[in-house]
């Protein structure tokens, strides 16, 4: 067995210079849960925190049991934690009020693949930049999406260069066209390019911040299974290629031996998990690795998220290493819980019989 030093995400909470935290990983491993909890924990040490979901499936609303929109909304029960859900693939809406302008821009955008998405991402970042949050956490859609998001700034930079060369080639043609459509100078070529140039500055600035390990880090969430291990390695390599810092891995859904496990199935799965846990610790011995237990229920609602957050800051202690008092306490509380459930069930059955 590899030497498993139990880690936590305390390093993220202590890094005061951090401005951007990306949470990535395979589908369904717990990215939304982990990013929500990270944002809750950060809110206790920072002046203001924003969590942004860029997943079109938007599940922050599920995690916090509260509806969010594309503008930051205060999370219930907090005074400094805000959440918003955006869709980077959605058409940019604020580029202009005229239909003619919109179609001209989308025509141009169509000529440069990815520029649409890049521009709405840029607009979002621009908005967020002006809002002055102390730290911003991104809950992303599965791996490829995260990686695409991180590449958007360079897509935009390339797109702009192409626009500039078009401008030089066709001279005042755009201006003539916009005048012809009666859009006036406000929507002319210079206005369009001006807007893009304005965004370029934001994008360049953010791009620089993303590559600065003092300001940006990416947390990889995974589960102890082969595909997830493989995917994590791919994500880590790509992040390194884009010069995005990453030094935290959260292994979720670990089956802990909190109760004496009798089930053959669970025993077999624990053995399987141990094999991949060993590999994670071997491959990523320079990372902070945080392990989270698989719970019998979903982690939804602020209370559940808060309760689960303790595993982010205090490392798990295997049952065997705890003292006898603690083990017995654990067992008593487990049995009490089971007793309460059985009593409630009994009451329900009795009431049902009574009515019949
Ligand atoms: N350790 C856990 N124990 C039990 N349930 C969990 C645990 N972690 C997450 N869940 C539940 O699993 C489901 C998926 O988690 P989550 O939404 O965080 O994953 P995700 O990686 O964001 O998924 P997607 O890729 O679809 O966005 C949720 O219902 C969540 O409450
Ligand atoms: Mg999610």
UniProtKB/TrEMBL annotation:
<dbReference type="InterPro" id="IPR016300">
    <property type="entry name" value="ATPase_ArsA/GET3"/>
</dbReference>
<feature type="binding site">
    <location>
        <position position="252"/>
    </location>
    <ligand>
        <name>ATP</name>
    </ligand>
</feature>
<dbReference type="Pfam" id="PF02374">
    <property type="entry name" value="ArsA_ATPase"/>
</dbReference>
<dbReference type="InterPro" id="IPR025723">
    <property type="entry name" value="ArsA/GET3_ATPase-like"/>
</dbReference>
<dbReference type="GO" id="GO:0071816">
    <property type="term" value="P:tail-anchored membrane protein insertion into ER membrane"/>
</dbReference>
<feature type="active site">
    <location>
        <position position="55"/>
    </location>
</feature>
<keyword id="KW-0378">Hydrolase</keyword>
<keyword id="KW-0256">Endoplasmic reticulum</keyword>
<feature type="binding site">
    <location>
        <begin position="26"/>
        <end position="33"/>
    </location>
    <ligand>
        <name>ATP</name>
    </ligand>
</feature>
<dbReference type="InterPro" id="IPR027417">
    <property type="entry name" value="P-loop_NTPase"/>
</dbReference>
<keyword id="KW-0813">Transport</keyword>
<feature type="coiled-coil region">
    <location>
        <begin position="325"/>
        <end position="352"/>
    </location>
</feature>
<keyword id="KW-0067">ATP-binding</keyword>
<keyword id="KW-0175">Coiled coil</keyword>
<dbReference type="GO" id="GO:0005524">
    <property type="term" value="F:ATP binding"/>
</dbReference>
<keyword id="KW-0547">Nucleotide-binding</keyword>
<feature type="domain" description="ArsA/GET3 Anion-transporting ATPase-like">
    <location>
        <begin position="19"/>
        <end position="311"/>
    </location>
</feature>
<comment type="function">
    <text>ATPase required for the post-translational delivery of tail-anchored (TA) proteins to the endoplasmic reticulum. Recognizes and selectively binds the transmembrane domain of TA proteins in the cytosol. This complex then targets to the endoplasmic reticulum by membrane-bound receptors, where the tail-anchored protein is released for insertion. This process is regulated by ATP binding and hydrolysis. ATP binding drives the homodimer towards the closed dimer state, facilitating recognition of newly synthesized TA membrane proteins. ATP hydrolysis is required for insertion.</text>
</comment>
<dbReference type="InterPro" id="IPR027542">
    <property type="entry name" value="ATPase_ArsA/GET3_euk"/>
</dbReference>
<comment type="similarity">
    <text>Belongs to the arsA ATPase family.</text>
</comment>
<keyword id="KW-0963">Cytoplasm</keyword>
<comment type="subunit">
    <text>Homodimer.</text>
</comment>
<feature type="binding site">
    <location>
        <position position="225"/>
    </location>
    <ligand>
        <name>ATP</name>
    </ligand>
</feature>
<dbReference type="GO" id="GO:0016887">
    <property type="term" value="F:ATP hydrolysis activity"/>
</dbReference>
<protein>
    <recommendedName>
        <fullName>ArsA/GET3 Anion-transporting ATPase-like domain-containing protein</fullName>
    </recommendedName>
</protein>
<dbReference type="GO" id="GO:0043529">
    <property type="term" value="C:GET complex"/>
</dbReference>
């Amino acid at each position: 067995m590899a030497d498993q030093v139990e880690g936590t995400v305390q390093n993220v909470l202590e890094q005061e210079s951090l401005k951007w935290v990306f949470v990535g990983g395979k589908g369904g491993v717990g990215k939304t849960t982990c990013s929500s909890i990270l944002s809750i924990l950060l809110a206790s040490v920072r002046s203001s925190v924003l969590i942004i979901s860029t997943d079109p499936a938007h599940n922050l609303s599920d995690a916090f049991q509260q509806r969010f929109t594309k503008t930051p909304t205060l999370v219930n029960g907090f005074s400094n934690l805000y959440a918003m859900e955006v869709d980077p693939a959605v058409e940019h809406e604020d580029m202009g009020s005229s239909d003619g302008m919109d179609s001209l821009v989308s025509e141009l955008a169509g000529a440069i693949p990815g520029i649409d998405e890049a521009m709405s991402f840029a607009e979002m970042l621009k908005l967020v930049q002006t809002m002055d949050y102390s730290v911003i956490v991104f809950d992303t859609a599965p791996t490829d999406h995260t990686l695409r998001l991180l590449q958007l700034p360079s897509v935009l930079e390339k797109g702009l260069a192409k626009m500039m060369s078009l401008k030089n080639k066709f001279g005042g043609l755009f201006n003539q066209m916009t005048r012809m459509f009666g859009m006036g100078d406000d929507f002319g070529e210079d206005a369009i390019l001006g807007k893009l140039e304005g965004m370029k500055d934001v994008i360049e600035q953010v791009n620089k911040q993303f590559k600065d390990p003092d300001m940006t880090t990416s947390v990889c969430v995974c589960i102890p299974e082969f595909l997830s291990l493989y995917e994590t390695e791919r994500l880590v390599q790509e992040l390194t290629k884009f010069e995005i810092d990453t030094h935290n891995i959260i292994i979720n859904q670990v089956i802990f031996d909190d109760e004496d496990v009798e089930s053959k199935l669970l025993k077999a799965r624990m053995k399987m998990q141990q094999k991949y846990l060993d590999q994670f610790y071997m491959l990523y011995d320079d990372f902070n690795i945080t392990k989270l237990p698989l719970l019998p229920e979903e982690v939804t609602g602020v209370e559940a998220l808060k309760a689960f957050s303790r595993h982010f800051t205090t490392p798990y202690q295997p049952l065997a290493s705890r003292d006898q008092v603690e083990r017995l306490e654990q067992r008593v509380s487990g049995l009490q819980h089971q007793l309460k459930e059985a009593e409630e069930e009994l009451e329900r059955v009795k009431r049902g019989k009574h009515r019949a």
